[in-house]
Amino acid sequence: MSPEKTPILEVSKLVKRFGGFHALDGLSFHVVPGEILGLVGPNGSGKTTAINVISGLYAPDGGEVVFDGASAGGVASHKLVHRGINRTFQVPKPFLSLTVRENIQVALAYGGATGAPSIAELLEDFRLKEVADRPAADLNSAQQKMLDLTRALATRPRLLLLDELAAGLNPAELDWIAGRIKALAATGMAIIVVEHLMGFIEQITDRVIVLNAGREIFEGTLATAVREPQVIEVFLGGEHAH
Ligand SMILES: Nc1ncnc2c1ncn2[C@@H]1O[C@H](COP(=O)(O)OP(=O)(O)OP(=O)(O)O)[C@@H](O)[C@H]1O
What we know:
242 residues, Rossmann fold, 4-stranded antiparallel β-sheet, 34% helix, binds adenosine-5'-triphosphate
């Protein structure tokens, strides 16, 4: 990352509780424009919850989310989309009876962003041209993920949150989508990637935050993370693992 850049997102001491359980327990980190940040950690460590709070799906119970210099914690998702935050879902939820093209059209209209990519570009860039006029229900899971991504990109986000986009893709598809994600970051988009596939994370991220039990236990490159005893312990099981 470029240390001289001002962060576009700053998360401080974020807390999210479900009943008495702390899914996020004082999480702090930042992302700068053009950076690809990986959020990694064992199952249940709070990665998706972090994305859900930053994207406005859940209001935080404590701490702050600042996007582009203004408070964004507890702001509704649709408002955040218009401010420049959008995301993909672990399980995409397209309008199943609409065609791929129509799904993208809806997202473009919803976003109303000037300078948004065209439908033709999105279909081409994310290999959906052949299925453009098929209902989303006909797509395989990789294509559904790509459609979900194009719908997020149609709103021209400055911060893009990717929740397990790579899960289920084959090695050739992984290489290809890694290239696409890097190309998006090269335009200045900040990208947060939640992913279990460490090879993929290594390929695309500048930096990772390792979470355990809703807290950061490491921040730095993945190459350094994998040599940290505490990181090894939470991934392999031990007294810190949950
Ligand atoms: N809506 C919810 N209601 C109750 N508990 C929840 C809810 N969402 C998440 N949790 C709990 O919060 C913890 C963190 O979940 P989260 O999905 O953020 O983890 P994760 O790191 O993304 O895990 P995974 O890698 O398995 O997707 C888990 O124990 C989960 O059961």
